[in-house]
Amino acid sequence: MKRKGFERQNIAQLAGYVPGEQRSDVAVIKLNTNESPYPTSPKVQDAIATVGIESLRRYPQPTADRFRSTAASVHQVAIENVIATRGGDELLRLLLTTYVDPGACVGMTDPTYSLYPVLTAIQDAKVVSIPLEADWSLPQNFSSQINANHCQLTFIVNPHAPSGRLIGQAALQVLASEIEGILVIDEAYVDFVSDEDHDLTQWAIASDNIVLLRTLSKGYGLAGLRVGYGIGPVHLIEPMLHKTRDSYNLDAISQQLADVALGDQAYAKSVWAKVRASRNDLKRALQDLGLAVSASESNFLLATVPSECALSAEALYEGLKAAHILVRYFADDRLKDKLRITIGTPQENAQLLAQLTALLRGGQSTASR
Known about the structure:
Aspartate Aminotransferase, domain 1, alpha/beta, Aspartate Aminotransferase, domain 2
């Protein structure tokens, strides 16, 4: 009899990552996957027009040096402190492949970015998931639990997903000094932090065990391009860059467009400011509707639906979806009474609020009447 399954045992037992819904309907309002509500820099459109078909027959620059040089300049570090990756997710995979032995432990919080445990399982490593406090802060014994399990690597998403809570540099420095392994600080949403002085890069490159993750998917409006990068000390970046990274991991077009987008800091910062302003407005409006909203330093809000509401969080999610508005609902125990809502344009936020108002007051969306 022929063998039916060829997967490794850990892969066969794995439940894969479930992304947020992506619909091709252009009329839908997408507030479920934390994309930018605004297009990327206009300079990127100009750069697209300069892409020559002749250049596509050659392999791209292997280590994306032009993009890495721009990133180094933006962050005031050396190019050797930067690695360019296919989205931030490739960096996560590289960190696990390079620094975590099969069977070893990887630390993370609960809840957190749901790809972390999937990638850990693919590496055939063990997840050590430590519950956050009720206010989404780290428990006091977080480091001791990490060390008790001999975690070779620990993931912290900061600002946190899905709450949006920010951990300050002082607390992160204490954490990094206490844990025995590598601390990966996933800064996918850091562009939206209100305190513009919050910058961990100089500390990270001078450390022994810190790697920062950055992405162009959120703050630069390039989720469809899939470009990210890591910043850290040379002894942590170099093995990934020259040993475990896929050959030619970033195509020539991605390198060129990402370089242009990252280089246009003035435009990017104008977008971040608009998102922060809309975040404050949307938070107040959701609170006026009776929802409890966590303080957020990201481009999304986590809204709790009180038990006395006529509709549950899941029912509101379904009602909004029927009205062609997508938000994110998680069925996890600590999140099943909550909705994660990406900050949209003022117009999109207004339509969201109108539909939520209709649902909360009448039990149905205006689209279904």
